[in-house]
Amino acid sequence: MQNIPVLIAHDGTRSLYVFEDFMGAGVCTGRTAAGRRCRNETWEEGQVATYEDIYVNDLVVSCYGPLSDDVGRRYLTQRCRVHDSPDAVAFCDPEWERFDPARHHEMTRKPSYNSLFMLGAEPPPRIVALALHEHCGEAERRLLASLLVEGPARS
Questions:
Q1: Exposure b/e, 8-20, CB count within 10 A at least 16 = b
Q2: Strand, coil or helix: what is 15?
Q3: pLDDT of residue 114
Q4: How crowded is residue 132: how many other Cβ atoms within 10 Å of its Cβ?
């Protein structure tokens, strides 16, 4: 599986993060009793989330999530269930970074006509225009523009 951004709903906002190793949303950053880094993954079997496409600027980003508050908090602290407590000592800082469309451009794509309305919410007009521009020829674009300006023909 390729690395993709993780959508975390935290404190009422939704943000995208990129983990070095998405397969486990990173390895736990907790320190073991032996003084080593814990090797447990943050992700665990049975975790409930979906894959979703969202808009970022004029691009589409496929992501994992949104994760709920508890799971999202654990991802942000990058801790397994064993080390998910205020008393657990950190071995290192979490290794995620905030998603940046310029830096993570390989994780973005232009909106396409075929997937335009499969993104859950109604796409913003600019996204629709970009997708149609990529999909339609000049004559089709002129016709669509005239329909948008004039509205449908009345009988």
A1: bebeeeebbbbbe
A2: strand
A3: 66
A4: 16
Kindly indicate the confidence band of residue 1, based on its pLDDT and cuts at 50, 70 and 90.
very low
Cβ(96)–Cβ(14) below 8 Å: no
Task: Return the higher-pLDDT residue of 50 and 87.
Answer: 87
Strands 51-56 and 108-109: unpaired
Cβ-proximal residues to 104 (8 Å cutoff; 6+ apart), any chain: 5, 18
Domain boundaries, the chain: 6-109, 111-155
Closest by Cα among 130, 24, 37 to 75? 24
Give the predicted TM-score (pTM) of the model. 0.69
Distance, CA of 60 to CA of 119 (rounded, Å): 9
